[in-house]
Amino acid sequence: MSWWMEESIRMIQTNLRETDAAMDPVGLMDDLDALSANVLMVNAGGIFAFYPSELEHQYVTPFLQNDLVGTLTELAHRRGKRIIVRFDFSKAHESLFERHPEWFYRTREGRAVNYRGIMHTCVNGHYQQKVSLEIIGEVLARYPVDGIFFNMFGYQHWDYSGNHYGPCCCGNCRRRFREMYGRDLEDYDENGGTLQREYAEFCERTTREMLRNIRDFVKKDHPHVAISTYHTEGVDLVRSESNTSLKRPLPKWLYAASENVASVEGGWDDKRSSCCSINAVDLPYRFTGVSVHETEIRLYEALAQGSVLDFCIIGTFPDYPDASNLPAVRRIFRFQQENESVFNDLNPIADVLLVKPESGAARGEYSGLFKILKEKHILFEVVARERLIPRLEKEKRARVLLLPGIGRLTERERGLLERKQRAGLRIAATGGALAEDAESLRALFGIRELKRLPDAESAYFEADGEGLAGIPEGRRWIVAPGPCWAAVSEPDVVGRLRGIEAATFGPPERAYGHARSEAFDAVSIRRSGAGSGVYYGWQPGEWYGRYGWQDHKEAFAALLEDGLDGGWTLKSDAPPSVEAFLHRVGDGDLLLQCLNLSGFDGMTYHEALPIGPLTFTIGSDVLPRADKRQAAGAPGIPTGTRLYEASSLMSGKAASVRRTAEGLSVTLERLERYEAMRIREAPSE
Ligand SMILES: [Zn+2]
């Protein structure tokens, strides 16, 4: 297997400025040692070369004194570290534009983009198509590096100041677009014209094609070089970032690192996620980091999933005017290093597969469900939409498949889902999912027709009499701000959460007239073989993410679990601000991890408030094999023998474990920021 799949990775990226070309390489290695980092990511080429390139079209920074890439590669390997070199082909020095203006991005008016002497190139130009391969080839021929990374791969429609330039209308893009779609790119209309969808598809297809070309080129002679960028096509280490920006709309996304990691690790067996904790507050403020509490959460969320630890600063450590987060980075990196055998062999245990939609429009629904599952401590994995078939085909354990706002299924996907459903899978859809896919609605949910209801303020769902856990005693109605979809269903479909129709709401004298709907149930449930279909005709994720009302979370979760044999694998009295993870270590012990997110108030990341005691009950079916020996009445195991023990990887202290009718109950007396409990068979006494 490849090194990036097998090894623990603790990566530091020093995002060099060209003035850093004269840095002290030995000093950098000492800094990496002090942080327990075992992988360095550092600039090599593209905009500026940090090595003495001999290629005609690779601009070498005049600040280069020696061969920085060569020296760092040799030093890193001598100290037992890997090195991944960074390229940025999205832009090039303006001197290249003077010689080859046809390689560069153009606006519809034919203007190129020059940002501080660095100019946007184009995916379809000769520079990205061919020169990039020459530069990669030169670096791989000279230096035995372990990986290559591309910054900002693909089309650059924005500059660093946030100015938007629209589609690239260079000669190559216009020609290729006409060949692929038979239309002129100049007709692109920013206001939602038909070319928008086609242009997005054009960008995706040509980007994927270029990534495949790079992969073929690199792997032919260098199969052990990892390829990394912010895409999945042909990539080994899928990079993402947990970062902040002053211009990003609220709310802040507490699960940024968790989600970045989960959305890769759940879909591919041959790729690894590398979610970089960007220290800087924003691009214009690269020299001050986010709070240490936010940094800890990001790194622990990656650690807990057995993923790569990845941290980035600009420039080099001696110059960098903010060392405040480094002790936390050092502590978490070292913890992973000391427990490599555990974190390198984690296999998630999941009850639910949450499908991540391709469409940006459904992302709010998806991320709201992600938040609900986390807060309810329901064990789940994320499956990227394009990986639905391979993942479902090999899935043996998960009992629920969640489709948030998924537009349409292919015939093959529908067939597979029907088979899995008959075999016992519960399939749940939310947020107007499959509204345009009548066949799937009928096959999976028994819905003959789905109608989008007119948006109406002041409508409700009737919770009264549903007996839904989590809805406060005495509350009869739940607000339903819309949009909603009403199903006309087969007779064997059961409706839940009857709609309460909108009425006038002001002035108070006129606030009456709500009637129980005759035709709209917010949830439709149908049994199908050993499984079932649960269709939510509303947006539990979007509404919970946007408004934060507990009712939406609780009603969604209660109906998802309703009638599920034995309930969820992990049950806990922990508050929603505890993020829980349960993995199998190899094929034996269990690892229960808890991350305390309580310091986050929606805007600021404060210190976590200690919480405890917390109890987690783990279902019998996932316990290590001791229980089976007892259940089978194996000889030599007297009744009452302590079969399991739990101990902290942080402190080595034992935690109290107790066998209950539901499984194994583990009590954690006090949770500070993070805890990891290894649960194993007790040695026989
Ligand atoms: Zn172009």
Please indicate the count of domains.
4
* Rough outline: globular
Major β-sheet, in short? Answer: 9 strands, antiparallel
Mean pLDDT, as a whole number?
94
Secondary structure: helix percent: 25-40%
CATH architecture of the largest domain: 3-Layer(aba) Sandwich
Low-confidence stretches: none
Structural class: alpha/beta
Distance from N terminus to C terminus (CA atoms, Å) equals 39 Å
Strand content: 25-35%
CATH superfamily of the largest domain: Class I glutamine amidotransferase (GATase) domain
Strand order of the largest sheet: 14-27-28-33-30-31-32-29-26
CATH class of the largest domain equals: Alpha Beta
The helix tally amounts to 18
Number of strands: 33
Radius of gyration: 27 Å
Please characterize this protein's 3D structure.
The protein is built from 18 helices and 33 strands. Strand 15, helix 12 and strand 16 form a beta-alpha-beta unit. The model has no long low-confidence stretch (mean pLDDT 94). The longest helix is centred in the N-terminal third of the chain and has 27 residues. It has 4 domains: 116 residues; 198 residues, TIM Barrel; 212 residues, 3-Layer(aba) Sandwich (Rossmann fold), CATH 3.40.50.880; 112 residues, Immunoglobulin-like. The strands form 6 sheets. A 9-stranded antiparallel β-sheet has the order 14-27-28-33-30-31-32-29-26, with helices on one face. The chain has a 9-stranded mixed β-sheet with strand order 16-15-17-18-25-24-23-20-21, with helices on both faces. With 685 residues, it is of the alpha/beta class. The chain is 28% helix and 26% strand. Zinc ion (ZN) binds next to helix 6.
